[in-house]
Design goal:
Layout (H helix, E strand, L loop, with lengths): L3 E7 L3 E7 L5 E8 L11 E2 L1 H19 L6 E8 L4 E5 L9 E2 L7 H9 L2 H9 L8 H11 L3 H7 L2 E5 H9 L9 E2 L1 H4 L5 E2 L4 E2 L1 H7 L8 E2 L9 E2 L2 H4 L4 E7 H8 L8 E5 L3 E8 L10 E6 L7 E8 L3 H11 L7 H6 L9 E3 L17 E3 L7 H27 L6 E4 L6 H11 L3 E4 L4 H14 L5 H5 L4 E5 L5 H16 L9
Parallel strand pairs: 1-5, 5-14, 9-12, 15-21, 21-22
Antiparallel strand pairs: 1-2, 2-3, 4-7, 6-8, 10-11, 13-14, 15-16, 16-18, 17-18, 19-20, 22-23
Helix pairs in contact: 1-6, 10-15, 11-13, 13-14
């Protein structure tokens, strides 16, 4: 068998391809950013064609860097930004519209109408999700209703839908020449259209959004011993089995080897996503969490999770860089924040797309509170990093309420974990140790694990556990009094964001 597994990680701001060996060690990677298209307030789009072009480029560059060929890869896995929605023509391969990104809020009226007339409870029970702008169903409905010709093409079978995993897989396996139209349960569970118990599209849920069933991809296991397809020769130079798909946060959970009920991880990226493995038990949240599929490996039982999804964390640091211009790079946020000993009374709630878990307030918008003449850009930088940590505490508190499980340690991964001050703040604000693995980019690693397990490159999840090694651990240094007062002020700041936008 070949010595390596490849994983495509198509994220909100960039696309990367990574190659791993049997020990879970990174061999090579290449990464390219793509454009963030912001047509108007609350709208966030990507160009699907640009994403596909970036995908081809990062795969080929990574193989060249490592001096490897397709024959060196035993399998290929995909992980992706989840709810971002693409509708394209299966005959021409052309998207009808830009991808509508998970952060986009244009569907707030659709979500509000579902909640208002009682359909929201059916969605919660069957799909495990509240009606929200976050998920794919409303985005598909918006495209069907607002882009000329799409409704007719969908009814005839020419217009098809996929989250980014499906779009990339379709192109990788041939596109208009036999491309495979498939997704996995982790991505399908983010649409408001799949029944969590049957792992199939639900006709009543589809009717809520007016979506023809024939638009939707086939749902196959996250780790597929019978591969979805093989890569096109013009992309990798030959055929490699495509045998793993996991939405990005579930992929990070697998990469962090959280295979036992009660194990949790927090990924720090554009947003933050904390997942708690609940095993084969489908736990229905009463505290604002999402019930989601954690993974489905072959014919083994489905494993579920509770998830706390936070819209804006790392992207708040990008906002400091790109919109305010007070830092020149993300790493500079740590240096600037270290210039002061505390936040100077400033709290920043970055509710740019409303508030996600556990609040689910689409009427909220960002707020900076507690300002006095004393405050500087360093206090704002520190408040930005603290906002990442306080939002994560909100989710941890809600998960404890739902599950009865108190965290002993929080496993962390993602780009923001390189910010050591932020990770120390996280330990202080939570009051538990924070642990970062040697391989911090666990999203791609999880996709590699899913693909490799399917073809026997790895044989068991116990084998994967042996690959996990801790890089660094942060211990709390705040007193209980500091922690209590800081969190109380944060909760006051959150309340100040409510009701800023009128939602019909």
């Amino acid at each position: 068998m070949a010595d390596f597994v490849g994983a495509l990680d198509q994220g909100t701001t960039s696309t990367r391809f990574m190659i791993f060996d049997h020990g879970g060690n990174e061999i090579a990677r290449h990464q390219l950013e793509h454009q963030q298209i912001l047509p108007q307030a609350g709208w966030v789009e990507h160009n699907p064609t640009e994403i596909w072009e970036r995908t081809r480029a990062v795969i080929q560059t990574t193989l060249n860097k490592a001096n490897l060929a397709h024959s060196d890869l035993a399998a290929f896995g995909i992980t992706n930004q989840r709810e971002t929605t693409v509708v394209w023509n299966r005959r021409t391969g052309r998207p009808y519209y830009n991808a509508i990104v998970w952060q986009d809020t244009r569907t707030d009226r659709i979500a509000s109408a579902l909640e208002r007339d009682g359909r929201g409870e059916t969605i919660r029970h069957r799909a495990g999700l509240p009606p929200a702008t976050y998920f794919s169903g409303g985005k598909i409905q918006w495209i069907l209703e607002n882009v000329d010709g799409v409704r007719e093409a969908a009814e005839s079978g020419d217009a098809v839908f996929g989250n980014i995993d499906t779009w990339v897989l379709w192109n990788l396996t041939g596109g208009t020449d036999g491309g495979v139209h498939v997704t996995d349960p982790t991505n399908a569970s983010r649409t408001m259209l799949m029944d969590l118990e049957t792992l199939d599209w639900d006709d009543q849920l589809l009717s809520f959004f007016g979506i023809p069933r024939r638009m939707l991809p086939q749902i196959k296991p996250s780790s597929a011993p019978d591969p979805y397809g093989t890569t096109r020769a013009d992309v990798l130079g030959g055929e490699v089995p495509l045998s793993g798909i996991l939405g990005d946060q579930q992929a990070a959970t697998v990469g962090q080897v959280c295979f036992a009920p009660g194990e949790a991880k927090n990924t720090y990226g554009t947003g933050n996503f904390l997942l708690l493995n609940t095993g084969e038990e489908l736990v229905r949240s009463k505290a604002g969490m999402l019930t989601t599929v954690c993974y489905k490996f072959g014919d083994q039982p489905t494993v579920y999770a509770l998830e706390g999804s936070i819209a804006v964390t790392g992207s708040a640091v990008q906002w400091l860089r790109d919109q305010l211009g007070i830092i020149s790079g993300a790493s500079q946020s740590e240096d600037l924040a270290r210039q002061v000993d505390d936040n100077g009374g400033v709290y920043f709630v970055p509710a740019f797309s409303g508030l996600f878990a556990p609040y689910w307030r689409s009427d909220a918008r960002g707020a900076i509170v507690g300002l006095s003449r004393f405050n500087t850009n360093a206090h704002l930088a520190r408040a930005t990093l603290e906002s990442i940590c306080y939002q994560s505490r909100d989710v941890v508190e809600a998960m404890r309420e739902d599950s009865g499980v108190a965290l002993d340690v929080l496993k962390v991964d993602g780009g923001v974990t390189a910010n050591e001050l932020c990770m120390q703040m996280q330990a202080d604000i939570l009051g538990v140790p924070v642990s970062r693995p040697v391989v911090a980019e666990t999203t791609a690693l999880g996709a590699a694990y899913a693909a490799g397990l399917a073809v026997g490159f790895w044989t068991t999840t116990d084998e994967l556990r042996q690959n996990w090694n801790e890089d660094k651990r942060w211990h709390p240094t705040w007193t209980d009094d500091q922690r209590h007062h800081g969190y109380a002020d944060w909760k006051k700041a959150v309340e100040r964001t409510y009701g800023w936008v009128d939602v019909d």
